[in-house]
């Protein structure tokens, strides 16, 4: 004990409930660092009690989680990270999550509900899988969840009202099995058996929970449908046309955003037109030579992008992140303000962006 700060010693003598009450008031961005203080801190930070206290105190935050794919790690190429503050600095950095049993296939589709991130399907031993894995973001540990009714190699997934809609991802689909719905509260599955026409005959889909319903786009047919009053109806032509372009997308505060061609757009559902997100003119020059991911991040937008830089005799891989506040104006739509951006990951190994999601903690 010699040389230790007396204040630290006295703090560690407090009972668990008081320490939890203090930790609940600290931003979760510092939790990866605080968990290194002691085994006791690590256990308390991973406890469900801390999450419940944060809820009662109204201290809920969004935590950003990122999945990267490595081409040098063989059977387990996926690496999972969470964004946190760098010790002693203002910068943020991606910290690796060292948890066994994490998903290994990049085709696995991911969706987040509350403090949980679910991963659906993918390939296991070269066969499509019906397995579902779930990560409890409070402890950053993976475990098994109830399996799907169908094996799906590369499905799409979206969230609406704490239910996850898993779409496509396998051959021989019809109107009785092309969509499965997972109720995260009851932990049960059911097929969404709603009569549909050609849209259910594909295998590759995009899907999103938007304007109180789900929108599904068939990549083979080039058609977007939305669930309306128990039936499938074709969505707006302009929404479908732009959504079909190579892009990343997300929904924030019931506004549909997509990134394509180095620009970020939002969909004006009243005028039925895609509009450029203003205020980001300087940012677009940064994400010019790699993949980009968008994610809702506490009603703000997180933008992550790749950068590949040649350093001496090797290529350095970098991941950048920007946090964008969004503000709607009556006269000229939605404007974004870059509150922060910086380099959050650097490696001499080849990594690519796979997923970016926010959980509620």
UniProtKB/TrEMBL annotation:
The family database entries (CDD domains) matched by this protein are listed as: F-box_AtAFR-like
Domain F-box as annotated: residue spans: 14-54
* Name used for this protein in its record: F-box domain
Q: Which organism does this sequence originate in?
A: Arabidopsis suecica (Swedish thale-cress)
């Amino acid at each position: 004990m010699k040389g230790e700060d007396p204040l630290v010693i006295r703090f560690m003598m407090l009972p668990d409930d008081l320490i939890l009450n203090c930790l609940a008031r600290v931003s979760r961005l510092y939790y990866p660092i605080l968990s290194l203080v002691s085994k006791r801190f690590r256990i308390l930070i991973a406890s469900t009690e801390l999450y419940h206290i944060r809820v009662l105190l109204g201290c809920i935050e969004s935590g950003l989680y990122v999945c990267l794919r490595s081409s040098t790690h063989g059977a387990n190429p996926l690496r999972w990270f969470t964004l946190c503050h760098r010790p002693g600095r203002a910068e943020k950095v991606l910290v690796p999550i060292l948890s066994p049993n994490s998903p290994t296939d990049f085709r696995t589709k991911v969706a987040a509900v509350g403090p949980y991130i679910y991963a659906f399907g993918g390939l296991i031993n070269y066969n499509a899988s019906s397995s579902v894995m779930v990560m409890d973001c409070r402890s950053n540990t993976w475990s098994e969840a109830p399996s799907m009714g169908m094996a799906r190699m590369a499905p799409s997934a979206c969230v609406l009202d704490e239910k996850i809609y898993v779409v496509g991802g396998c051959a021989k689909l019809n109107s009785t099995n092309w969509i499965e719905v997972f109720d995260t509260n009851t932990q049960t599955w059911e097929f969404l058996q709603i009569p549909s026409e050609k849209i259910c005959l594909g295998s590759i889909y995009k899907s999103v929970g938007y304007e109180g319903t789900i929108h599904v786009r068939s990549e083979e047919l080039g058609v977007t449908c939305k669930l309306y009053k128990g039936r499938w109806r074709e969505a707006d032509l302009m929404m479908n046309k732009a959504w079909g372009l190579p892009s990343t997308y997300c929904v924030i505060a019931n506004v549909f955003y997509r990134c394509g061609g180095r620009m970020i757009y939002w969909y004006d559902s009243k005028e039925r037109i895609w509009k450029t997100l203003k205020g980001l003119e300087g940012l677009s020059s940064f994400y010019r030579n790699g993949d980009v991911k968008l994610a809702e991040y506490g009603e703000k937008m997180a933008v992550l992008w790749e950068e590949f830089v040649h350093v001496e005799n090797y290529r350095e891989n970098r991941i950048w992140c920007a946090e964008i506040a969004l503000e709607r104006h009556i006269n000229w739509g939605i404007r974004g303000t870059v509150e922060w951006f910086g380099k959050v990951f650097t490696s001499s190994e080849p990594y690519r962006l796979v997923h970016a999601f926010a959980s509620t903690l």
